[in-house]
Amino acid sequence: MTSHGQVAISCIGIRKQFIMRHTRSLKEALVWLVKGRKGDLSKKFLALKDVSLEVKQGERVALMGLNGSGKSTLLKLISGVLQPDGGTVRTRGRVAGLIEVGAGFHHDLSGRDNVYLNGAILGMAEKQIDEMFDSIVEFSEIGEFIDTEVKFYSSGMYLRLAFSIAVHTDPEVFLIDEILAVGDEPFQRKCIAKIKELSELGKTLFVVSHDLDLVATVCERGVLLEHGNVVMDGEVHDVVAELRRRSAHAESEGSL
Ligand SMILES: Nc1ncnc2c1ncn2[C@@H]1O[C@H](COP(=O)(O)OP(=O)(O)OP(=O)(O)O)[C@@H](O)[C@H]1O
């Protein structure tokens, strides 16, 4: 049972650092050696600095920000694909991450086998997948291609099957990264309708998308990330307006 008011996602003081190893020039390497190997040839980059965020069950939240602001990194930390270097991330209930769509697919297996494989990875028992199978295939519109190896699928077919499996696993929390912008328009409309239906059932949605008009129709709350910090958290239309203002400013400064 889903009850509103309970916390679905909690991030406290999240910090995530990436280490970027550059190939240095011979001269740089020599200077480094002559100086007694002092300093570090790798460069550290803080993708998320100190992010705290709470999402209640049943909320529909859009995570927004310019390129490189840390959105995908935050989503990967919430889904457990990445671990933070500091802070804590907690989620309540089953989480379905539509992040790297089809990442769990095995290329040499058919769509059918991948439904079973992916369903199992997402925590479904074989019997449950048997019961859901026809409905998964129907929603995905894969049709007879379900017995074709997925390496022959188009990116849209991949997406449709992955989305369909995920919505059939009955998770409490959906993490969605750019998925809404992929696929053709009729399927996009179908996804949005499904997402709205899930939200009416009290599911929690946490969505990353550059399609601001779209997120404004799907979500009611917006969180704006900038250089790895939350700079605004409020009503989605206000946050969209603020992001548009900052984008225009960044463009005029030539810093995009
Ligand atoms: N595995 C990694 N190694 C090194 N740097 C990384 C890695 N993943 C992300 N980054 C860097 O961290 C920063 C944040 O990346 P992230 O993908 O989270 O941003 P984003 O807001 O999702 O961007 P976009 O809107 O372009 O998808 C970027 O500067 C990116 O280059």
Tell me about this structure.
The protein has 256 residues and is an alpha/beta fold. It has a domain at 7-93 and 172-253: Rossmann fold (3-Layer(aba) Sandwich). 39% of the residues lie in helices and 27% in strands. It has 8 helices and 9 strands. The protein has helices spanning 26-34, 71-79, 111-121, 126-140, 155-168, 185-200, 212-218, 236-253, and strands spanning 7-21, 42-56, 60-64, 86-91, 95-98, 173-177, 204-208, 221-226, 229-235. The strands form 2 sheets. A 6-stranded mixed beta sheet has the order 5-6-7-3-8-9, sandwiched between helices. A 3-stranded antiparallel beta sheet has the order 2-1-4. Helix 4 crosses helix 5 (155-168). It is globular, with a radius of gyration of 21 Å. The protein starts with 6 loop residues before the first strand and ends with a helix. The model has no long low-confidence stretch (mean pLDDT 87). The structure holds adenosine-5'-triphosphate. Adenosine-5'-triphosphate is lined by residues 18, 20, 45, 47, 65, 67-73.
